[in-house]
Design a protein that fits this description.
The complex is a heterodimer of chains A (138) and B (81). With 138 residues, chain A is an alpha+beta fold. Chain A has a single domain, classed as Alpha-Beta Plaits (2-Layer Sandwich). Chain A has two helices and four strands; from the N terminus they run βαββαβ. Chain B has a single domain, classed as Ribosomal protein S18 (30s Ribosomal Protein S18, Irregular). Chain B is globular, with a radius of gyration of 15 Å. The chains are: A alpha+beta (138), B mainly alpha (81).
Chain lengths: 138, 81
């Protein structure tokens, strides 16, 4: 049997801003569960970008929790993850990007964290739920 | 290089920002860099204006489109005027 080459991906998903910690936890668990169905699938890094302002309204919300993770897995894994996320009502958006492919499952896959740059990492901490009439356009 | 003998004054030579500054990375997760390549309305600036190389313009375009998907950048901004 040919050993399946692995692919490296990154995933961002947005959870609606009114979700409780438990609800967000649950989504993360459901995503983690998907990894158990695939051999050699594993998460390399998880980041919580916190509650951020959206560039445009989604489902009448102006903010969302951003969750980010880098992972490796065989082909088919992302389809499963996206299927799971699609089913979860609290998840507003997801985006999977392939970073690398053809990785040998035997070789150790190292994840070099990106340098903290730009506006992305330092999380905007403002937790007032002024989710309406936020924008200056009247 | 000048095109057409300098009518309307000399054209300023355009520089690809990513070639000029190697520390700048094109990444859809970093809207602070990408914002230089969209108009105030959120439209992607054409290559003739942005001055990017074809390769980098494609990367920037791709990055902006991805950023839009996860609401890091706007598709449009409606300016009341």
């Amino acid at each position: 049997m040919i050993r399946q080459k692995l692919r490296k991906y990154e995933l961002i998903y947005l959870v609606q801003p009114e979700a409780t910690d438990e609800e967000r936890e649950k989504i993360a668990e459901r995503v983690d569960l998907a990894f158990e169905k695939f051999e050699n699938a594993r998460v390399l890094r998880k980041e919580d970008w916190g509650k951020r302002k959206l560039a445009y309204e989604i489902r009448k919300f102006n903010k969302a929790f951003y969750q980010y993770q880098v992972f490796v897995g065989p082909p088919g894994l992302t389809a499963e993850i996206e299927r799971v996320l699609r089913m979860l009502d609290n998840c507003m958006r997801y985006l999977t990007i392939k970073l690398d492919e053809g990785l040998d499952p035997e070789a150790e896959i190292i994840d070099e964290p990106e340098p903290v740059r730009g506006a992305m990492r330092p999380v905007v901490v403002d937790d007032d739920d002024d989710d309406f009439e936020e924008d200056d356009d009247a | 290089m000048r095109k057409f003998g300098g009518y309307r004054g000399r054209r300023r030579k355009k520089v690809d920002r990513f070639q000029a500054d190697k520390t700048l990375v094109i990444d859809y997760k970093d809207p602070s860099v990408l914002k230089y390549f969209v108009t105030e309305r959120g439209k992607i600036v054409p290559r003739r204006v942005s001055g990017l190389t074809a390769k980098n313009q494609r990367r920037v375009t791709q990055a902006i489109k991805r950023a839009r998907m996860v609401a890091l950048m706007p598709f449009t901004t409606v300016k009341a005027h």
